[in-house]
Amino acid sequence: MQPIEKAIRAKIATEFEPQHLEVINESYKHSVPPGSESHFKVVLVSPAFAGQRLVQRHQAVYAALREELDGPVHALALHTHTPEEWAHKQGDTPDSPNCLGGSKADPA
Amino acid sequence: MDIMETIKQQITDNTVILYMKGAPNAPQCGFSQQASQAVMACGQRFAYVDVLSNPDIRANLPKYGNWPTFPQLWVKGELIGGCDIIMEMSQSGELKKVLDEASADEPSE
Which of A30, A56, B6, B100 has the most CB atoms less than 10 A away? Predict the structure, then answer.
């Protein structure tokens, strides 16, 4: 496992005590060099999300991963659920879209 | 005008505003494409800002809204969310409801 993915996993585990966690490096789908850790998809199931709107859940994850987002991580697709919602969805999360080239304009 | 003032004015002057990479008819990022298509599908008028051609806004809006990435959908001065939230609300029908209600409240010109 590469260092950024490892850091994302560790921080989410500490902050949210997830029942289910997927951290998927999707950088290969984008216009970045091979081996990059720039685009991630995170599927996170935690009782901590109960009673929170989606925008609040995502803001909580962004806050926990501020260092990574200020640095190398450029995109973070988030799928946040409570255990009840997750059971209802039966593990179904949508695929992230493919790149359209916009990040070629990025210095990072 | 200070950039934070400009942002504040944009999100208060426009009932529905989407900050995205590229334009709805020429999106520059898959996430912005999905989000703008979902918003367009609701059939209400909305404003958009291309953050790739507005680097000041791209740099400062994340601080304003405590939201680090694009796209961002703002309705009536409030952050609704990014691509994942927009898509989830689109599939559940909630997005159309929110946008219909917002436009109904809009002062007629």
Answer: A30
Q: How many CA atoms lie within 13 A of B54 on its CB side?
A: 17
- For chain B (length 109 residues), average pLDDT per consecutive 10? 94 97 96 98 97 97 93 97 96 96 79
Residue A72 lies in a domain: yes
* Number of domains into which chain A is organized: 1
Is the pTM for the entire model greater than 0.90? Answer: no
Closest CA of chain B from A2, distance in Å: 22
Containing domain of residue A8, as a range? 1-17+50-93
Name chain B contacts of A22, Cβ cutoff 8 Å.
none
DSSP 8-state assignment for residue B102: H
Q: Tell whether A43 is covered by a domain.
A: no
Q: Measured between CB atoms, does B22 come within 8 Å of chain A?
A: yes
Structural domains of chain B in order of their starting residue, each with its CATH number: 3-104 (3.40.30.10)
- Whether A107 has its CB under 8 Å from any CB of chain B: the answer is no
Show residues of chain A in contact with B33, CB under 8 Å.
97, 100
| ipTM, interface predicted TM-score of the complex | 0.78
**CA distances in angstroms from B39 to A46, A59, A99, B13, listed in the order given:** 29, 21, 20, 18
Specify the 3-state DSSP secondary structure of A93.
coil
